[in-house]
Amino acid sequence: MLGKFATGVSALLTRSTVPLLQNAGFTPKQYWTGTILNHASSKKYQAHSGTSKLLGVLSTGPALCAAQPLLEQQTRNTFVLKRRTPPNLYKKNQKPGKLRGRHFVYELVENRTVIKKPNLEVILTAFVEGVGAKGDVVSLKPNVAYNQLLLPGLAVYKTPENLAKYATEKDETEKEIHSSAYAQRTVNKLESLILAVVMNKDHPWVIEPWHIRTALRKAGYYVPTEAIELPATPITGPDLLKQNKEFTVTITINNLEKARVRCRIHHWSTEPSNRLPYVFEHWKQEAEPLFGGA
Q: What is stated as this protein's family in its record (predicted)?
């Protein structure tokens, strides 16, 4: 095997490099592994006449196996092993027997790197949207709890000391600001919505809360009628001057949070020939307010 290796290496060397290697006392294997540069640069070979020329050829030649910087980084891997052949027991104060090769053959019992880790319980030190309020004990995945809560300082580990501490420091006023962990997220979703309120183009109408409830249901939001608050000024039609005009309605969530939803009026006719031209992605276009203060 070594002979084939050395033969292959010699084939890669140039004709001018091989005599220099032989005169300097090096083998093709040393050229392949890259250790020749360390030897040739030592004081032992400084006086050799062909050393300087050899170093020049090697520095311009191909780096067949140049040393690469290694990244030494610790990894948290745990493997539980057991010996396939356990060693013999020995008496007290007796010299242990010599281990043979069979004693170093192991079997894998458990690979803990692929086992799903249990959830981590933490105590929130502040309100976290979608998680909970201050003082709540929540159970999350270890990565989520560590990166999103523990590192930013939004939570602490669940211990008897922390439970006693945050049970007494629980801020009741903060709980009143948020009715639930997902209320603020619902408010943000509703306020980012541009709701299309489709009204009849041929018959008179007055916008009522159930019109807004129907438009919200078409958009994927289920809101009770009593939670919808319309503007103080009634909105009547049909009126093409109000086409694509914008007004806002207020939606109350859990009788506490309030979200202002932007709505736009669109006239629709059951007669195809009487319909208005379709505007592509009308919600992306700028709209004038229906009322001066809207």
A: Belongs to the bacterial ribosomal protein bL9 family.
Instruction: Report yes or no on 111 lying in a domain.
Output: no
* Listed residues 137, 158, 174: the one ending a domain: 174
Predicted structure pTM score: 0.51
Tokens of 239: 């009126």
Phi, psi values for residue 5, rounded to 5°: -65, -50
Geometric angle at alpha carbon 162, from 156 and 164, rounded to 5°: 150
The total of other beta-carbon atoms located within 10 Å of residue 120's CB is 19
Which residues are CB-neighbours of 183 under 8 A, at least 6 positions away? 253, 254, 256, 257
Least confident segment among 65-69, 133-137, 245-249, 287-291 = 65-69
Pair 187, 144 in one domain: no
Domain assignment of residue 275, given as a range: 182-284
Question: Would you say residue 67 has pLDDT above 90?
Answer: no
* Strand-pair category, 246-253 with 257-268: antiparallel
Give the CATH number of the domain where residue 273 resides: 3.10.430.100
Q: Is residue 98 classed as helix, strand or coil in its secondary structure?
A: coil
